[in-house]
Write a structure and sequence with these properties.
The structure holds two protein chains of two kinds.
Chain A lengths: L1 H9 L6 H5 L9 H7 L18 H15 L6 H13 L2 H4 L3 H10 L14 H21 L9 H14 L8 H9 L4 H19 L8 H20 L7 H59 L1
Chain B lengths: L1 H10 L10 H29 L3 E4 L2 E4 H15 L3 H9 L2 H13 L6 E5 L5 H11 L1 H7 L3 H6 L1 E6 L2 H13 L8 E5 L12 E7 L8 H11 E12 L5 H23 L2 H13 L3 H10 L3 E8 L4 E7 L2
Parallel strand pairs in B: 3-4, 3-6, 4-5, 6-7
Antiparallel strand pairs in B: 1-2, 7-9, 8-9
The chains are: A mainly alpha, B alpha/beta.
Chain lengths: 301, 314
């Protein structure tokens, strides 16, 4: 094709935009210098000591630059999102884990609610923010000297799970909604990861250094206990969730029993394996011997 | 060097042949332009900087002040058959693209939105419906007061396009709805206050603006903190075989469709050419970032036939 060939020949020079970027003799509005300056934002402020009597475009650019420096440091999108989400959490008990809560939150911090549209996966952003915050809170609690020393490991586990789940109490009426958001196929990878992190953190804090069980088994077992308790909590109307905590203690005990039984099962399996292995080896040896004797015999013939 | 020289070297070539096979004419024109620019460069560089800059009108080079007039003519010519042509050219896909745009915007009750170059109201009606849909209201306990506050400004430089939009609003029974405001105005010099809008959309419009940078700067100016900029525009296809098919469709089929349905071949020739002159996705994203926007992203639809650029003002 002639045309495509011609275009290839012309290359980048074919676009007009570079032309438009040439400094214009007259800055028509105050916004124009700003549009120039942001591209050079990354450059250090060192070149501010320019002669103010310079030609217009550069002076305008510098002015824009300085104006930008004088503003408060440029808020990163992530920080802004975190601020909005933090404010939104206060509206969750009333409005649920919804866009409405986030709209209310953004109004509260003085940002256009439009920002909500730019959060990836909308409501999930709010739930995931909450999960991250709670984990951070848990870590802070542990770091600030949570008394776990005189507890046995199973008690430590149930105490940590309880502390974590207690953080959800203010949102309990809307928590089923959060769970359904987390269970949405699009959100599963993140929510799964967040739960894994939480469980890892708990095992880490418990300080169960024993390497008797596979890490993934531990993670799965505690994950199961955590989720079961979380679900139990939804329908628990006993005062101060007493039933939930009793349920939790039982499940953790079960888990530690299971740990024991798994350990026993493992030893048992090892024994069986050894036994079977030996007999298998014996069998194979027998076979090989017969084979070789037969082979020897056949070669003798 | 050759950038400045294109200004007048090309002016002499604007009237070059449109006849015979247009692709050949196209190639001939651009090659001769290139050649001409080299020859003329030393002579013209000083002249061009004194006079106005050249800009593109399709593949033609025109003076900046002429472009808006020429674009104006195009849209005056096609206003009446604009929507049916969109349907025919895109096979109805433009509806899905616009839905996607509005979906990305996620409008909310009480929002102040500005839809630039949206004369026929296609995007504005979708935003209006999204805010007012019964399902949404039932689900989300939207209070009626904030619903009343919703304002969607439809801004278009071309009164003919706006008239089509107003007519369609009347057909939908929204003729005297206070949420829809029709404003005649230039994307490069908006008549709205600083920090006054929650959202800014421009669908199939920014390509026709003479200075894209100015339009972006204006978008940045009118948006509030946290306000979003969304741009739906025909863009560049980079998938090998599909690209050739698309080019063939653009240059062979669309102008003919234009002649057949809108009775205007030239306008649609301009359309396909202007798409090719529009900066590619990455470049346009950089321009948006240069205007001061944060979180600049784009999404290609149909392999890049159209792209939705989104950004946020912080």
């Amino acid at each position: 094709m002639y045309r495509t060939a011609a275009r290839r020949l012309l290359g980048a020079g074919f676009t007009t935009s570079r032309l438009l970027r040439l400094p214009k003799p007259r800055p028509t509005t105050t916004i124009i210098p700003y549009s120039y300056c942001t591209s050079s934002m990354e450059s250090p402020i060192g070149n501010q000591s320019v002669n103010p009597n310079q030609s217009d475009p550069t002076a305008a650019r510098e002015e824009g630059h300085r104006r930008d420096e004088s503003r408060k440091p440029r808020a990163e999108f992530q920080e802004e999102q975190a601020r909005v989400l933090a404010a939104s959490l206060r509206h969750v008990p009333r409005l649920g884990w919804t866009e409405e809560a986030m709209i209310a939150g953004s109004r509260e911090v003085g940002v256009s609610p439009s920002i909500v549209g730019s959060f990836s996966r909308k409501e999930a952003a709010l739930v995931e923010y909450f999960m991250d915050e709670c984990l951070q809170l848990l870590i802070d609690r542990v770091d600030s000297g949570l008394d776990l020393q005189n507890l046995i490991p199973s008690e430590r586990v149930s105490k940590l799970v309880r502390i974590r789940l207690e953080m959800q109490i203010p949102y309990m009426s809307k928590w089923p909604q959060a769970l359904s958001i987390q269970a949405h196929p699009v959100n599963v990878p993140t929510s799964f990861k967040q739960r894994a992190m939480l469980v890892d953190e708990i095992w880490h804090t418990v300080g169960d250094g024993a390497s008797d069980l596979d890490w993934y088994v531990k993670r799965t077992v505690l994950g199961g206990v955590y989720s079961a308790t979380e679900i139990y909590m939804l329908t628990d109307d006993s005062p101060e969730y007493r039933d939930t905590w009793a349920f939790l203690d039982d499940r953790v005990k079960d888990a530690f029993d299971l740990k024991k039984s798994i350990q026993e099962a493992k030893y048992f399996a090892q024994d069986i394996g050894a036994g079977v292995g030996k007999s298998f080896q014996g069998l194979m040896n027998g076979v090989m011997q017969t084979m070789s004797t037969r082979g020897g015999r056949s070669s003798a013939f | 060097m050759h950038l400045t020289s294109r200004a007048d070297s090309s002016l002499s070539l604007v009237s070059s042949s449109q006849g015979t096979n247009f692709t050949e004419a196209m190639a001939l024109r651009s090659i001769s332009r290139r050649f001409g620019s080299r020859v003329l460069s030393y002579r013209s560089s000083s002249v061009a900087s004194l006079h106005s800059h050249a800009t593109s009108f399709g593949f033609q080079q025109v003076k900046e002040e002429e472009k808006s007039k020429l674009v104006g003519n195009v849209f005056t010519n096609v206003a009446s058959s604009y929507d049916i042509m969109n349907d025919v050219m895109s096979g109805g896909l433009h509806r899905l693209w616009k839905e996607r745009l509005v979906g990305k915007l996620s409008p909310f009750a009480g929002m102040k939105h500005l839809d630039v170059a949206g004369g026929t109201g296609d995007v504005a009606f979708r935003i209006f419906d999204a805010v007012n849909s019964v399902k949404r209201r039932a689900l989300r306990k939207v209070d009626e007061a904030s619903l009343e506050e919703t304002q969607i400004y439809v801004c278009d430089i071309n009164p003919n396009m706006l008239n089509v939009g107003k007519q369609r609003a009347a057909e939908r029974g929204l003729g005297d709805n206070k949420s829809l405001v029709w404003v005649e105005g230039d994307a490069e010099a908006l008549s709205f206050d600083d920090n006054s809008m929650d959202g800014y959309t421009i669908a199939f419009g920014i390509r026709n603006v003479t200075h894209i940078e100015k339009a972006l700067a204006e978008a940045y100016r009118v948006l509030k903190r946290g306000g979003r900029f969304l741009c739906l525009e025909l863009s560049h296809v980079d998938i090998p075989v599909f690209k050739d098919v698309y080019d063939l469709y653009s240059f062979k089929v669309i102008p003919n469709l234009g002649e057949l349905i809108a009775g205007d071949r030239e306008s649609y020739q301009y359309l396909v050419e202007s798409v090719r002159r529009f900066p590619p996705q990455e470049k346009f994203a950089t321009m948006i970032a240069d205007a001061g926007f944060e979180k600049v992203e784009y999404e290609n639809l149909v392999g890049g036939v159209v792209a939705i650029h989104s950004a946020i003002k912080l």
